[in-house]
Specification:
Blueprint lengths: L1 E7 L1 H5 L3 H10 L3 E8 L3 H7 L9 H8 L4 E8 L2 H9 L12 H5 L8 E3 L3 H11 L7
Antiparallel strand pairs: 1-3, 1-4, 2-3
Bound molecules: guanosine-5'-diphosphate (GDP).
């Protein structure tokens, strides 16, 4: 069993596709172990994406992620990290496999609907960034 952090980004919330995205996770065998809808402050978004600090898209990304509510979730299952990334598709929706969330719903490399942890260490950091142990079941 593995856990990963998933975020339905502000564009996904605006598109009203929360149910569709979660349906895909569940159909693939992932389980929602925790979920909450929050509005990230700029500081929260900046800290979450600190690894990208200095990149040309960082300021825009922080602006975008704090532009509206998001749904943060802990997904649990076998190979949850890799499986979630597979369901999401490539960062650039133009390179995403057909049938993935980003291929179906993303509008640009930035407005790409979902976030997912990319490795065990980032998953641990990202889950703890939003959830305490007592909020995950
Ligand atoms: P992810 O793990 O697939 O989400 O990709 P990254 O960790 O590399 O990037 C984080 C987020 O920054 C992406 O999901 C996009 O929303 C945004 N992003 C990444 N690359 C670019 C880029 O070249 N331009 C812009 N505008 N945004 C980007």
């Amino acid at each position: 069993m593995e856990r990963t952090l998933s975020i339905i980004k502000p564009d996904g919330i605006r598109k009203n596709i929360v149910g569709e995205v979660i349906r895909r996770f569940e159909a693939a065998g992932l389980r929602v172990a925790a979920a909450k809808k929050i509005m990230m402050s700029k500081d929260t978004a900046a800290g979450f994406y600190a690894v990208h600090k200095g990149k040309f898209f960082y300021d825009e990304l922080v602006e975008f992620m704090s532009s509206g509510p998001v749904l943060v979730m802990v997904l649990e299952g076998e190979n949850a990290i890799a499986l979630n990334r597979k369901l999401m598709g490539a960062t650039n929706f133009k390179e995403a496999e057909p049938g993935t969330i980003r291929a179906d719903f993303a509008e640009s490399i930035q407005f790409n609907v979902v976030h997912g942890s990319d490795a065990p260490d980032t998953a641990a950091f990202e889950i703890a960034y939003f959830f305490s142990a007592s909020e995950i079941y």
